[in-house]
Structure formats: structure tokens, C-alpha cells
Amino acid sequence: MAAVFDPVELGAPWGPARPEPPPTRFHRVHGANIRVDPSGTRATRVESFAHGVCFSREPLAPGQVFLVEIEEKELGWCGHLRLGLTALDPASLAAVPEFSLPDLVSLGHTWVFAITRHHNRVPREGRPEAEAVAPSRPPALLVEPYLCIEQFRIPRDRLVGRSRPGLYSHLLDQLYELNVLPPTARRSRLGVLFCPRPDGTADMHIVINGEDMGPSARGLPAAQPLYAVVDVFASTKSVRLVQLEYGLPSLQTLCRLVIQRSVVHRLAIDGLHLPKGLKDFCKYE
């Protein structure tokens, strides 16, 4: 049975009165060419370029980011990942459409966009077109550790993609942090969320490597359960879910950040006198 969320007071923080949402997982209902791993956190398209539509297992909570990292790419196809929200219960679908665009969208109550650098930004009614201009580059993590989207404040640390550990990983990581790589590059992190408004509707936002692309759609039914939609389409072959911390950072996360900021690059972590588990956590997370 779909969960129904109480209206969220604007600016309400995560805390005892508003518990953090549960970890995200992929739904058991998905496209015919998708294989989801036993943990429910990795989705791979095993053949062709289509039939790759996936959904979140549960409806998203207001302000909860459904965040995926692109793990594998496949050459030879034209097109990339598609992302959005739907008010349709995946379990109620007679069959999962071949494509999210236009097939799933044509069923109604669905908002999905192909991922691009200059994303579809919807200006408010009566406001100038200038509001639709893409936002400026995000500040560095050390300068502004939180991403603020309407009434929500989300730690940016895990929103930003990271390169594989290597001699030049510290340079590559900066490219992800500044969001100058193609938005659908391998290891880029892409997320979708909705923000309720006082009139009972919601805005949908898409986040690319820690940068809010602005409202992609307005007027979503905030009172209805909204599921995330991820279309593992064409050149995008495999994605994995990334879990976020919404309240105060855990001690583990704070330790990781201190260690990472104390070395030139992540390979240098191997030379520290730390347990192997902690080294691996600092290198790969």
C-alpha cells in the first residue's frame, strides 16, 4: 500500500518530529531488460537500449533525494539517462512502458526529463524569463557544505560524483565538484526530489553533481504518493543508488571528511596508520 505523507511545514528540519526517510531502493517492478541486484540498489540494463525504466520502491518523502550514480556506459547508442517522478503506483501498471519518454509520460501524472546540462527550468507565472536561466556554478564543498533547495537543506558531500582512487583523483574530483564534466559522465551523480508549496502543489527539482538545476516541473500533486523514475536508457547501462544523510552528519562521515581533507589525494590514505576498513571507506565513499 502506498505511503501517504503529512503536509510538511515550510522550513521544517529533519529531526524527532520529522524522521529521516528510509534508505532508497529500486522497485521490484521495472523494465523487461533491467536486472536489479539482491540489495535493490543497483540496476543494470542487460540488452538493447530500451525497456530500462525503473522506479523507487517507496514513494519519496518531501525533500528526499533519489540519488543515482552512473556506473557503466555502453558505446554505440544515442541518448542518456532520464529522470523524474510519477504519481502512478508501479505495482498498478499492467506493463512497464518501453520508454519513459514519451510512453510513461503519456499515461499521465508523470514528469520525466532527459538529463542535460542546461535543464528545463520553469519560471513562475508572471515572473520574467530570466528566472529560467541555469544557475551559477555551485560553491566548493569547503565553502558551502549544504545545498539549499527551497525549504530543504541537504549535505552536498554525497551529492557530488567522485572519480576512482588514483594519482590524479584529487584533480578529477574537482571537475565533478565544479560540475564541468558532461552530466551523464561515468560516476556522475544525479538526483530528483520534490518540494511542497503552500498551495498544496509541489515543484520537482533535478540535482546534477551537487548543483540544483532549478524547478523542472511545477504543480505536482504534493498530497499524492510520488515515486522516482529512472530510465536506464541508451548509452547509460548501469546505475547504483547513493544514500544520503539528512540530519546532522554522522561521526563516521565527519571523520572521513577530516581524513580526506588532510591528504593530497586519496591514494595517500593507504600510507596512514588506520584500519583497512576505515581506509577503504575514506577512499571509495
From TrEMBL:
One of the protein's GO biological processes: intracellular signal transduction
Residue span, NHR domain: 23-244
CDD domains: SPRY_NHR_like
GO MF, one example: ubiquitin protein ligase activity
SOCS box domain segment(s): 250-285
Domain of life of the source: Eukaryota
SUPFAM superfamilies: SOCS box-like
Pathway: Protein modification; protein ubiquitination
Full protein name: Neuralized E3 ubiquitin protein ligase 2
